[in-house]
Amino acid sequence: MEKTLFEKIADKEIPAEIVYEDDQCVAFRDVNPQAPTHVLVIPREPIPSLESLAETNAPLLGHLWMVIRDVARQEGIAQGGYRVVVNCGQDGGQTVDHLHFHVLGGRPLQWPPG
Ligand code: AMP
């Protein structure tokens, strides 16, 4: 099967500014940042979306949240506060069919989102 865009980034076939990686996940800067800090955290496993998660993905998800916390600290936004967003499906605004967590910070963020 054709690799997703984010699999290609994880496999270093497409360049990206990677800020963290391990055997389960990769974090890299969004190419079109919506805040001074905008990092995407993805599992290496090409899970298409939140909707396609399985019970067996629970340990991976726990790990991803720990990585999100650590990336926020590493980026210097943990103290000021930040937002984690997962767009799911068409109405959710998902454009890349590979599960990803947006980590946004570095400025006060508005609520609600559009
Ligand atoms: P979503 O709309 O939630 O699916 O988010 C996809 C995100 O991927 C968007 O914020 C895009 O700016 C970002 N994106 C698309 N292509 C790249 C790329 N080559 N490198 C980094 N980020 C990307």
Automatic annotation (TrEMBL):
Span of the signal peptide: none
Superkingdom, taxonomy of origin: Bacteria
Cross-referenced Pfam families: HIT (PF01230)
Active site per UniProt: 100
Residue ranges of the motif Histidine triad motif: 98-102
Gene3D superfamilies: HIT-like (3.30.428.10)
GO MF annotation: an example: hydrolase activity
Keyword Hydrolase in annotation: yes
Keywords tagged on the record: Hydrolase
EC number(s) stated in the UniProt entry for this protein: 3.-.-.-
Residue ranges occupied by any HIT domain in the UniProt entry: 5-114
InterPro entries xrefs: Histidine_triad_CS (IPR019808), Histidine_triad_HIT (IPR001310), HIT-like (IPR011146), HIT-like_sf (IPR036265)
Keyword RNA-binding recorded: no
PANTHER family referenced in this protein's UniProt entry, alphabetically: HISTIDINE TRIAD HIT PROTEIN
Protein name: HIT-like protein
Species, as recorded: Bythopirellula goksoeyrii
